[in-house]
């Protein structure tokens, strides 16, 4: 296996070299959005400079734009290990894609049908489905997690799944607790009961490989700005399913256009080029005959590094009196989480901690971070939520030490 060289990776990100008033920026805000390597910036600039046109014409720029769009669909098919680039749908972001699909899917549901939503999810995979349920008159059931272990019990789905269940929507990894869910097992169960499965991979995709062939799901969606690309959402769904699913669209787009019928209007071609470049950036950390294989090997490599710095972060946080980590902490369970670590400190508002860290140029988020259900479930909504520290593969052990030192100044 290739050895991951964090210094070499960092050199590719112009933003990581920036300083403010002589202080280096320490980006621990990654679950809200990552920084971008030069090759992604270059790919986007190239489209805007020399390939800027709409699709379907006869002249040079329009032909180049078609290549950009086709390459981006192929890159995302490799990213998700999809069988066909026509199964890839680009959109503005995960939220917009989910609002769009919830609206399209609502056409096949009726009053009294049931959907299952997760108490661990970001509101982007809850709010759209709640609105769909209200519009159609569907019944909402909740997949609940254990607020002591931050995981779903194995039988959590059994308790709510029934013959009226039409859809299970759940996250692969939480933007709040950091838990990685066994979504393949839950999806298999839901499929066996005849339900559709919609998986939010937004927080999983920056840390582990996604393989739609192994997930048993119908829809998988993520956002490239969380994995070193531009602001762009990308959804995968099986071709046959896309064919059958109703699309809200303009008349000029044919029903037979699979994924394309869901890509409303003119897309961000520069965003697509950036996505493809981000996929290539990730693939260059891996080995294999194809880009899809390289991606899988790259993630094994990157995850191993991330587990090390995540454990360092957690062990350091554990030393603070009154601090509770709101997620999995066992040293041997780093593979059951992403390196997104939320915590609370008795008697200290989370936003005060985030503000203090900003003073040392350490970037973290505080509050509910749109994870309304998990924050409510943990009883933290009226306490200001959590402080959330989120690592990516470009973070270093020294940066984790700097966070601990800065917290030490403030909390002791
Ligand atoms: C788990 C999860 N799902 C969905 C979203 C929404 O993504 P987007 O900003 O692309 O709409 C986020 C954003 O933070 C998230 O963390």
Keywords for this structure?
412 residues, alpha/beta, 2 domains, four-stranded antiparallel β-sheet, 13 helices, globular, binds pyridoxal-5'-phosphate
How many E-type strands?
A: 15
The string of secondary-structure elements, in order, is HEEEHHEHEHEEHEHEEHHHEEHEEHEH
| Poorly predicted parts | none
The DSSP helix count reads 13
The proportion of residues in beta strands is 5-15%
Considering the protein shown, what is the CATH homologous superfamily of the largest domain? Type I PLP-dependent aspartate aminotransferase-like (Major domain)
The Rg value, from CA coordinates, equals 21 Å
The CATH architecture of the largest domain is 3-Layer(aba) Sandwich
Shape: globular
Side-by-side strand order of the widest sheet: 4-10-9-8-7-5-6
CATH topology of the largest domain: Aspartate Aminotransferase, domain 2
Q: Explain this structure to me?
A:
The structure is a single chain. The protein is α/β, with parallel strands linked by helices. It has two domains: 6-37 and 293-411, Aspartate Aminotransferase, domain 1 (Alpha-Beta Complex), CATH 3.90.1150; 42-283, 3-Layer(aba) Sandwich (Aspartate Aminotransferase, domain 2), CATH 3.40.640. The chain has 13 helices and 15 strands. Strands 4-10-9-8-7-5-6 form a seven-stranded mixed β-sheet, sandwiched between helices. It has a four-stranded antiparallel β-sheet with strand order 11-12-15-14, with helices on one face. The chain has a two-stranded antiparallel sheet with strand order 1-2. A hairpin with a 2-residue loop joins strand 1 (19-20) and strand 2 (23-24). The chain starts with 5 loop residues before the first helix and ends with a helix. The mean pLDDT is 97. The structure holds pyridoxal-5'-phosphate. The site of pyridoxal-5'-phosphate has 15 residues, from helix 4.
